[in-house]
Amino acid sequence: MCLKQRLNHILPEARIKTRLIDLVGYASDAGFYHLIPKAVVQPVNEEEIISLFQFSNNCKIPLVFRAGGTSLSGQSITDGILVDLSRFWNKILIENDGDTVRVQPGVIGAIANVYLKKFNRKIGPDPSSINSAMMGGIISNNASGMCCGVKHNSYHTTQFIRFILPDGKSFSAENSLDYKRFNKECMFLAEELIDIRETILSSQELHEKIRGKYKTKNTVGYSLNAFLDYSEPLDIFSHLLVGGEGTLAFISEAVLQTIPDLPFKATALLYYPDIYAACQAILPLVGVGAEMVELMDRAALRSIENMPGIDPSVKTLPETAAAMLIEFQEADLTSLESRVNEFLNITKEFSLLNRPEFTRDPGKRDFLWKVRKGLFPAVGAVRSKGTTVILEDIAFPVDLLGNAILDLQALFVKYHYTNAIIFGHAKDGNIHFVITQSFDKPADVFRYDQFIREVVELVVDKYKGTLKAEHGTGRNMAPFVETEWGLDAYKIMSRIKAASDPMNLLNPGVIINNDPDIHVKNLKSLPAVEEEVDKCIECGYCEHKCPSRDITLTPRRRIVVRRELVRLKKTGDHVKYRELLKQYQYDGLETCAVDGLCASVCPVDINTGDLVKRLRKENHSAVGNKFALVLAKEFRLVESLVCFALKSGRLVNRVAGEKAMARLTKAVRKMIPTFPLWSNQLENPPELGILEKIHSDPENQTTVVYFPTCISRVLGSSAEGRKNIMEAFLSVAEKAGISVVIPKNISGSCCGQIFSSKGFRDAYHFTANAWMEELWTTSCEGKYSVVVDVSSCTYTLQHLRPALSESNQLLFDRLKIMDSIEFLCDWVLPGSRVKQKKDKIILHPVCSVDKMGIEYKFRKVAAFYAREVVVPVKAGCCGMAGDRGFLFPELTESATLDEAAEVKESDYDGYYSSAKTCEMAMSEAVNKNYESILHLVDDCTE
Predict the structure, then answer these.
(1) What is the average pLDDT score of the chain?
(2) Which pLDDT score is estimated for 416?
(3) DSSP secondary structure string, 73-140?
(4) What are phi and psi of 558, to 5 degrees?
(5) Which of 68, 129, 234, 770 would you label with 725, given CA atoms 20 to 30 Å apart?
(6) Which DSSP symbol is given to 222?
(7) pLDDT digit string (tens) for 737-794?
């Protein structure tokens, strides 16, 4: 019996992944190790977890739990069974007026903070990966970050943990009865913990070593401070799980104490002549209350000096220069100003190259932090093809930090890491260094091995620092845990592992590992593939944005699979290559929404949607491309045929029942897989006569060109008796006293998105140029702004330039193309007369609104016409992607699941968006009528 069949006794087939493409996709995390699992499973409750533990024990197959997969040291990969927690373990509950938060391991850290924001609270840990890292990893790696130091890290803010041991027994430190039960049912483990505690307390040397280690950031090995901080075995073990990297038990739930999210902040970027001078300023900065002190060496600054918006003076800094990004945070403005002034009074003590300028502007502050957070990926973006990005973190005593960094930089020179950079959390003595190299040759592996061994010697022997301050031990530092802690402490850690996981099947090889060379085994190979793939550092920051994440692949996994295809081809494994390539057609290409949201969070700006478009283009035959070009040239006829088909479909449903067309198209699809499915969200096409009756007023100073998209011309109103979107737009414009001009040849016009998204280059270029010329004429050669009524089409038109001829590019540069949201916010709202407001409405910001950076205007318009405006915390791409929802409804169903569940928790007076097909998808998911924001304005104005 195969593995999947045996697992099928525990989980349904849909939540067991054993296809080659699934195993390859999950073989990588954000680190530089690579292991292909035997299976990937997605349990939904504790009962299934317990059964998986039993299965692991019976079959002697290792089990590894993964949440966000953003770990950097190889602690969330396996060649056993990988348990994916990212999909079904995302419950969150705010308790005690925000003082505590209850989370499951699949909750994204930033999402927890969104829920806590209304209480002016946040979780203590603030890793730079917080927008994608999940609470299971944040707790298991004892995450800290830029602000929390050692006081508010995961260890010190985790109040209660509910866990399941490898033998299937579950306990919660929140339940008082579990304390006695733990001692009774886990007698050997409890007695071991008590004995270890007594051993530590009886040894002054060990006691002092542990206390000293945790005065600074330290995630090497297990959290031995638990034996000093707690006396009950259950409490001790619960806190050993914090930083235990999933090697001791499964954390099913945790309760964290939150900390204040101080509202007043002042931030400044300071420049110093050299790294040593910068380090000498750390203690004085801490003394005046700086909340954050982020250090950057000259190489780090060089990696971001060309970032748009960066101060040009950065390029002129001397080669030895360094910088510190500092921030003060307070509960009130007076206290904040006092802190800043206190700092300014001591600046004469520092060798500053610039005059400190603090900003409290949120936008400017966000940009400064974007610069700081962009250091790691900035190196990744410019590295040589085929090289891996290695991000390590170490900590030194703060007073020795300057000397330690100089020694570390000397090692970079010795081992030829010419692009290495250093940055980090200076007030904690915690620095990160980034190096890049390939592992293709034995000499490359040897160089890294020798380098890391010298780093260990430098940190441990010379400066008495710590080898891992934040990122966890993983595989990379497992051989050196004893080096840092000493034999006695290492023996204690080995006892902890053996007592809780005697069969060594839970994430084996992580933290406790007897192989002295494990840090240079199973290294990730990154063969050159193509531009987007080669830039990817596999960090996983993109995954939570992807609409196909829970059904097929994420952008990261799409890229991981592309790399595997190249490896298989090079090694001559043609059988697996063909199998993987076949699976990639559906998982990688057909179910990608090409929405491009992955680029908005990708630290190296990869738009996987563009990659997929290009791959789709390469799949097209010459005949297919010619046919698409014919359709583009005859789009007026295509539009007429679509209108006819919609009218016919509605007629069939009226005659044969409302499900008739759905059944009919499903039957046809069995014979023609590319045939679109019917949706009852499809309405009869609107009459276009309304556009012919428009009479523009050339004397009116406020005149716009209205471009009714083909979607608006083909799809009617969203509910019987309601205006269609064109009628709503014209009504709003008339009430605002705005004259409207309609392109003469509007019938058959298209922005080209339908061809662009499918990779039909010639058809897209023809459409782009044809309608650029039409818009140029209609706008009186750029005199009038062009307004588009569907946001995705607006975005497409705003990015036409690369598809245009050289002459049309010059015309395009003189055009102003705006979305209907911008039109409402900037043109309509200032003089709007509100006759009534909605009480409570909900918005669905479509992908294009996010990419255009106009969501704040969307919210502003909505807030002007409604007393309460809600944007779901889990709002994201609906997966419709123009026609994907008709071709692959499973994609849209999966993409809208979380947002729809959140929306259904309450009732609203209106449901609004700004793209017709997305409104259809959300209406289907929520069973409520979503419509354009134009309807809100039309309903509420006079």
Answers:
(1) 91
(2) 93
(3) SS-S--SSEEEE-TTT---EEEEGGGTEEEE-TT-BHHHHHHHHHTTTEE-S-B-TTTTT-BHHHHHH
(4) -60, -40
(5) 770
(6) S
(7) 999 988 887 888 888 888 888 888 889 899 889 888 888 988 888 899 999 999 999 9
Q: Give all domains of the chain, ordered by start, each with its CATH number.
A: 92-256 (3.30.465.10), 264-471 (3.40.462.40), 527-616 (no CATH), 689-940 (no CATH)
Angstrom distances, CA of residue 867 to CA of 777, 908, 937: 42, 12, 14
Query: 65 pairs with which residues across the strands?
Result: 83
> CA geometry: angle at 805 spanning 804 and 808, to 5°?
80
| Contacting residues for 719 by C-beta, under 8 A, at least 6 apart | 929, 931
Q: What is the DSSP string of 162-210?
A: EEE-TTS-EEETT-THHHHHHHHHTHHHHHHHHHHHHHHHH-HHHHHHH
Place of tokens 């019996």: 1
For residue 646 the two structure tokens come to 């919609």
CB 48 within 8 A of CB 15: no
Q: Are 554 and 548 in contact (CB under 8 A)?
A: yes
C-alpha distance from residue 237 to each of 88, 169, 503 (Å): 26, 14, 18
3-state secondary structure of 771: helix
CA angle 501, 502, 503 (to 5 degrees): 95
Percent of the chain clearing pLDDT 70 (strictly above): 96
The amino acid that residue 416 corresponds to is: H
Amino acid occupying residue 301: L
Cα 460 to Cα 454: distance, rounded to the nearest angstrom: 10
Residue 510: strand, helix, or coil: coil
Instruction: Determine the Cα–Cα distance for residues 64 and 80; give it in Å rounded to an integer.
Output: 7
Q: What type of residue is 406? A: L
Q: Roughly what angle, to the nearest 10 degrees, separates helices 555-571 and 608-619?
A: 50
Q: HSE-up of 370 (CA within 13 Å, CB side)?
A: 16
Q: How far apart are CA 89 and CA 137, in angstroms?
A: 13
User: In angstroms, how far is CA 506 from the centroid of its own chain?
Assistant: 27
Of 532, 527, 530, nearest to 605 by C-alpha is: 532
CA distance 519 to 872: 43
Residues 129, 138: Cα–Cα separation, whole Å: 10
Beta-carbon count within 10 A of 271 CB = 21
How far apart (Å, rounded) are the C-alpha atoms in residues 743 and 724? 19
- The reported pLDDT for the residue numbered 887 is 84
**Measured at the alpha carbon of residue 346, what is the angle toward residues 345 and 348, in degrees to the nearest 5?**
105
pLDDT at 700 exceeding the cut of 80: no
Going by the DSSP 8-state scheme, the letter that residue 834 receives in this structure is B
Give residue 628's Cα distance to chain centre: 35
Instruction: Please give the structure tokens belonging to residue 677.
Output: 């499915």
Exposure of 59 by Cβ count < 10 A (0-12 exposed, 13-18 middle, 19+ buried)? middle
Amino acid at 638: V
Dihedral through CA 487, CA 491, CA 494, CA 496, nearest 10? -130
Q: CA triplet 126, 847, 120: central angle to 5 degrees?
A: 30
Q: What is the pLDDT of residues 867-898, one digit of tens each?
A: 999 999 999 999 988 778 788 889 999 999 99
Rounded to an integer, what distance in angstroms lies between the CA atom of residue 73 and that of residue 437?
16
Confidence category of residue 699, pLDDT binned at 50, 70, 90: low
